[in-house]
Amino acid sequence: MSNGSFADLITPYERVALVLQGGGALGAYQAGVLEGLFKHDIHPTWVAGVSIGAVNAALIAGNPPELRCAALSEFWTRVAPPSPWEHAEALWRRLDPDGPSISLLNQWSAWRTALSGQPGFFRPRPVVEWAAAGPFAGPTSVYDTAPLKKTLEDLIDFDRINEGGMRLSLGAVNVRTGNSIYFDTETHRIGPEHVMASGALPPGFAPIEIDGEFYWDGGLVSNTPLDHVLEDQPRRDTLVFQVDLWSAGGQVPRGMSEVLERQKDITYSSRTRFNTDKVTYEQTLRNQLVSLLDRLPDHLKDTPEAKALRSASCGAAVNIIHLIYRRKSYERDSKDYEFSNAGMRGHWESGLADTLATLDHPEWLAMPSRLGGPVTHDVLRDDLRPS
């Protein structure tokens, strides 16, 4: 299908939203999804992200359309650069692409990250900081994220973000109150500190201070910002590309490494399917309220009860295109901090392939009925089907 045809499918929607989960190194999958969308000239009007999803979201909103893919590529190459032994690793991966030796290679890469940090992202705090603090105090994180601030300032035009051409929402949690908050271009002036706050996952990263309050990673409360997008008022006809890095479904673990991995999958998937079903149910009721209220006799339309129902009703159409990263057979619990260049490229290629497979079904982008409730399409590798 031509780009013009995709534009025709998207034009009826009042907004095109991109919803990005957190997931550390797995965030390269989202970059691949975005490359696939950009190839078909599909650009969101609103991007909402948490943690690494917030970083990818800010890279999109902070660059013009023709530079977005390049900005994503530059970021991911900076934080996951080729290693000095890249050619040896590439040969190893070609000889045994799905074998247990690749698990060992990935674990070694993750250990390097844990010990040394990642360039352009974070670095271990020096021992002297811990020694000088005494036994009952000290730094509030294992790593220093000052390198990330420099990377964000290099690659993102924050003036462009705050001009309002594309709406940007970044999920975080207030450390003092424990409440979730979204730094949103409709209510905040966004800077690098807001992006960093969304990704400040303890105890690895320290809370970020903004206007006298301290914030941690939004994934501590909810790792999926879908509700923030769909609860926005007034509700509008919306096409959502929801890109998740953790799969709620999985196998019963067979060892401790699989236990830890499965725990992360369940925790950070943020009950994606449950929340999507809940949103679908609620939106269906709102849509049906519109039809019901239109049938009321005139003498009931201005009653307090009818007015209350009308404020909760909504005739908006919602179409959710759901893309979920599926773990490789050799990945373990370290997959979210395994920042090898080969791993990054593998995640990126998976996101691109899944997106291109999705766009082979352009009928999925058609706007559904406003009265029938939201429609969701899942992409399952090797088994594409709407649900």
Question: What does it look like?
Answer:
There is one protein chain. The chain is α/β, with parallel strands linked by helices and 387 residues long. Helices cover 44% and strands 15% of the residues. The protein is built from 16 helices and twelve strands. The protein has helices at residues 3-10, 28-39, 52-61, 68-79, 86-95, 100-116, 127-133, 146-155, 158-162, 192-198, 226-230, 256-268, 272-294, 298-301, 304-312, 341-358; strands at 15-20, 46-50, 123-124, 143-144, 167-174, 180-184, 208-210, 213-217, 238-244, 318-324, 375-379, 385-386. Strands 1, 2, 5, 6, 7, 8, 9, 10, 11 and 12 form a ten-stranded mixed sheet that branches. It has a two-stranded antiparallel ribbon with strand order 3-4. Strand 11 (375-379) and strand 12 (385-386) form a beta hairpin. Helix 2 packs across helix 16 and helix 3 packs antiparallel against helix 4 (68-79). 41% of the residues are buried. The model is unreliable at 381-387 (pLDDT under 50). Pfam families: DUF3734 (PF12536), Patatin (PF01734). A motif (GXSXG) lies at residues 49-53. Keywords: Hydrolase, Lipid degradation, Lipid metabolism. This is Patatin-like phospholipase family protein. The active site is at residues 51, 217.
